Amino acid sequence: MEENEITIRTGVENMDLPVIHRFLQQESYWAQGIGIDTVVNSLRHSYCIGAFVGERQVGFARLITDYNTFGWLADVFVVPEERGKAIGKHLMGFLMAQPWTARLRRIMLVTKDAHELYRRYGFREPGNPQLLMEVHRPDIHRQPEKAPLSIPDQQ
Fold first, then answer.
1. How many CA atoms lie within 13 A of 11 on its CB side?
2. Rounded to whole angstroms, how far apart are CA atoms 63 and 118?
3. Least packed by Cβ within 10 Å: which of 33, 42, 104, 127?
């Protein structure tokens, strides 16, 4: 393998959690100040994809999904010093090439500035935005925890 070759790994156990936490907490526009427990739990319950150069993680994405009908793409990033090297395209290409992503009825995301990247992989503005609703709490991760971070049992 060449020194600068990009490899893709999946699974939270293969991710560099300190790199991901540091980027989300300090450099992202969507999760400034996020705590490590929130990051760990969010990754634990997502399909995680990492881009690596050697053993160094340089990119990340996660899909929150049921693996059959729906997915929400979140926390996509490439570390600043590695941008412009098609790493985001590698991440997205890998994700969209998975056989199970082809059967998802809907994959959604929110982006401030990467619309053209996502359009390459079939993303479009919602056809009927008037049907979409949300509960939006953009700074919830900055508030003190009011409930345990454990996942409730399903009954």
1. 3
2. 14
3. 127
pTM of the model: 0.86
Strand partners, 65: 71
Mean pLDDT, consecutive 10-residue segments, the chain of 155 residues? Answer: 80 97 96 94 96 97 97 97 95 97 96 94 93 84 62 55
Which amino acid makes up residue 4?
N
| CA 135 vs CA 84, 111, 129, 132, 138: distances in Å | 34, 17, 15, 11, 10
Selection from 65, 62, 59, 44 nearest residue 6 by Cα: 59
Residues 6 or more apart from 122 whose CB is under 8 A from it? 96
